[in-house]
Design goal:
The complex is a heterodimer. By secondary structure, chain A is α+β, with helices and mostly antiparallel strands. Helices cover about 35% and strands about 25% of the residues of chain A. In chain A, helix 2 (about 25-35) packs antiparallel against helix 3, helix 5 (about 145-155) packs across helix 6 and helix 10 (about 310-325) packs parallel to helix 11 (about 340-350). The longest helix of chain A has 16 residues, at about 160-175. The two termini of chain A are about 40 Å apart. Chain B is an alpha/beta fold. Chain B has two domains: about 10-120, Rossmann fold (3-Layer(aba) Sandwich); about 140-290, 3-Layer(aba) Sandwich (Rossmann fold). Chain B has helices spanning about 15-30, 55-60, 75-85, 100-115, 155-170, 190-200, 215-225, 260-270, 280-290; strands spanning about 10, 30-35, 45, 50, 65-70, 90-95, 115-120, 125, 130-135, 145-155, 175-180, 205-210, 230-235, 270-275. In chain B, the strands form two sheets. A seven-stranded mixed beta sheet of chain B has the order 3-4-2-1-5-6-7, with helices on both faces. In chain B, helix 1 links the parallel strand 1 and strand 2. The longest helix of chain B is centred in the middle third of the chain and has 14 residues, at about 100-115. Chain B is globular. The two termini of chain B are about 30 Å apart. The chains are: A alpha+beta, B alpha/beta.
Chain lengths: ~375, ~290
Amino acid sequence: MNFEEHAAKRLIAGAIATPPGRLCATPVEAADAVAAIGPAAIKAQVPAGKRGKAGGIKLVATPEEAETAARAILGMTIGGHWVERVLVEGKVEIARECYAAVLNDPGSKGPLVLFSTEGGMDVEEIAATRPQALRRHAVDIRAGFDRAAALNLLDGLNVGAAVADTLAALYKLYRDLDAELIEINPLAIAKSGQVVALDCKLAIDDGALDRHPGLAAQGTPDKLTAMEARGQELGLKFIELDGDVGVLANGAGLTMTTMDTVAHFGGRPANFLEIGGEAYRRAEPALRLVLDNPRVKSLIVNFCGAFARTDVMAEGVVSAWLALKPKIPVFFSVHGTGEDEAVALIRAKLGIEPYDLMEDAVKAAVDAARAAGP
Amino acid sequence: MIVRRHHRVLVQGITGQQGTFWTEKMQGCGTHVVGGVNPKKAGTVHCNVPVFASAGEAAKTHPFDIAVGFVPPAGAKAAALDAIAAGAKLLVMLTEHVPVHDVMVVMAAAKSAGARVVGPNTAGLVTPGEGFVGIMPGFNDRVFKPGRIGVISRSGSLGTLICLKLVNGGFGQSAFLGIGGDPIIGTTTLDALQALDADPGTDGVAIVGEIGGAMEEAAAEYAATMKKPAVAFIAGRASPPGKKMGHAGAIVTGDKGSYESKRKALEKAGVAVADTPAGVAALMRQGLAS
């Protein structure tokens, strides 16, 4: 789960200083904030990068400028997100701009601390153009990352011990919050010597939210369509797409592959919906969800049971199909755990012969959707 | 990481519904299950094997090589650390949604102990004719047959389909290595590819990948150096960017982890990439012939 800058900064406040700031929803509030704080940055609050390049960050000196800037930024769309609020943050007299991050690293299979004296630009850009300016420390998670380790990482960069304290505090926060990523860019060393977070990107592991009560409420929920929200309530992974071939499969890999195969035969999938893992007993509500999409003109049901039992899934599909009596054609391919029982059930109750090859079943579904016309 | 008949297996969480169902299936395929774990049922017998309070207790009288866990996400770390401390050489972590910081602790402990971790969020390992460990239909002879093709898969369901396609195409498998759909996993595509390259029973390798991460790209570099043919299928070509497609590891951000990047890297390394699952067997036949 991602956190907008203002929410992230509240969470990291114990580890690193942040400029005085105020979250504002109207231009007038922004003007009032600047009247109180003084010269400031007006920053769009969206869970997306490159806000500056999109025109979502403006520096202002007076309340009038703040009102104009906030009026321009509020209502913008950045990275697909509508800007509803701005963060008004007091100007910092900067001596040096750095970069700091702690993240889960698939390469070392542990936490990775990154630091650079080249702040302000993307870390990918630093890594590509000035690799020698990017320091990395793969952390043994059982040993942790303390001040001594931080001083070692910063050796020769002449950034001062306060930065080492900040890095150690950020690492502790990363562990305490079960973060996937904490990135401070820029990490400013103010003329006063204080270390200040000018921006903060924070992502928390969805799998760990259960052990942090109240944390999810501060994050940015995924933007869901009405149908996606229903899927989430049902505990199903459902993503609405703009095609007309409904997809019901088990397992993430097989579901993606079914969508790919729809596209391969020139069709367009209407959804991603997988009922793998523990969800395999929920085929019936899953099918109802797919069929509630008025764009769906045909349906491909592609099961390949490993953990998920195809007989249990087929039972759910068959009973929902008999109850709903949809007017669209359905095409099956069923293999793996429980296959014989599943195929027999589909034949007996629906009078439909499942295809042996999933490619043939998908092609038939694509052809049927095309034949149904726009 | 290739399961053999002589490997001794401990099942953590053996008495639960899934633990019971899959232990019976594993035993039916010849897997040598030596015991199970459930602290509340220690001293009893389940699936014809003794149940212990912990992996450590089991090791005292029933030493084991592989530990497999049917445990919920919150208990996965403790179960894995217990198995590592008890001397397991291989851990098969089936659980999905294990907190990633917990996973990293397990990885660090396994590294110190010299143990290998497969998963988390894997469907397990199958060696047709010898046994299987996990939640794969190792008992279904339309999907798994003894043979000479190694299969590496991030996904259980898609891996099952590709194995079925290989059998339909007249092949059998030397080993199925399910590596898991999480972003941080103990055994990568590259690790699995190296193991199959070194396996004298394997003539060719099918890599079943998906969008997200950079594992297929890393494996491609190694594949370029192999004498055995490797072919691939990558899922997620039609998936929209920026969305997690079921697996936590299957997400494309920016241009990283994209289908195009993976396909390009694999083809550059001489790994033929199939457009549909059915293409895998045909490409394998061509690869073995040339």
